[in-house]
Amino acid sequence: MPHAYQTEAQEFCQSWLSGQTLFTLHTSGSTGTPKPIQLTRAQMQASARLTGRTLGLQAGDTSLVCLNIRYVAGIMMLVRGLELGLSMTIIEPSSNPLADFDPTNVAFDFTALVPLQLQTILTQTPEKLPILNRMKAILVGGAATSPALEEALQVITSPVYATYGMTETVSHIALRRLNGPTATTVFTALEGVELGTDDRECLHIRSAATNFDLIQTNDVVELIDATHFRLLGRADTIINSGGVKIQPEQVEQIISNVLGQAGLFWRVLVVGRPDALLGQRVTALYEATEFARTAFFDEENVAQAIRQQLGTYAVPKESIFLRTTFVETATGKIDRKATEATVFSRPQS
Q1: In this structure, which long-range contacts are made by residues 269-274, counting pairs with CB atoms below 8 Å and at least 24 apart in sequence?
Q2: Where is the AMP-binding enzyme C-terminal domain (predicted)?
């Protein structure tokens, strides 16, 4: 581990062990400017212990810490290790955190990854699969998992969970099983987490980890019951096209399904662009080249799938194939606003 990163990790652990009671973290900036948030020791302890109970983690278990410790997901991996008595291996974040580990003699009980890390492990170093299969639990968060990745990770026999949470909730407050016979599209709240929605159908959360304050999100959900919900998208990304409200994340999911069936792993963003007739027209941005589009991509298959599931108004009226990658935040999430601003501030060929 590089010296500066090692020092930063050690300093946090020393602060925690010394009994520090207040910590300042920063949001990821995926939905706006990163902002500082103060969390208490009690909030972080409550979150760590709840994760431990939910996943059956015990003192002496081993964990691989490979998320950025400058943000809540990485910091909470350290807190879980310290609070639960886990033996931690801490490495600086990289696209393949298992690259330097020998699958014949390395075993971890627990880790948390972002989707890119898991995809890289499975596609570039499948020989590392035994390391994943020895774990009690694998968390995947920070960004949505694509349909293609969810299909690929079925080779993992250990439980793999998508996480839902944010800095304000001190990491995850709900999990969704991604593999095996109990895989689901529905998130289940952890014990003691109270859920509800506002008049926009946006989720709000209260728990010991929020200090029992009500945290109101902009995440549009289908609240199934008191502890289960399906994540639909964000209220601040909704497109109004011809008077019809369209949740772009749902369109992106359908497109990703079609791409995955064609063996394509492009990322896609759906945005609303000004339109004189419709108000906003649905526009799809693809992280792919023009050559790839003409060689392998059938837009009519995409249009048909969207039309069948969401209706005609949700079908993109325009598709743009980028020669550059999407703009990302420091934690690897797609920065929707910055990507859109970059794309439409210069001509695309």
Answers
A1: 269/326, 269/334, 269/336, 269/339, 269/340, 270/239, 270/316, 271/237, 271/239, 271/336, 271/340, 272/239, 272/240, 272/241, 272/246, 272/248, 273/318, 273/344
A2: 268-333
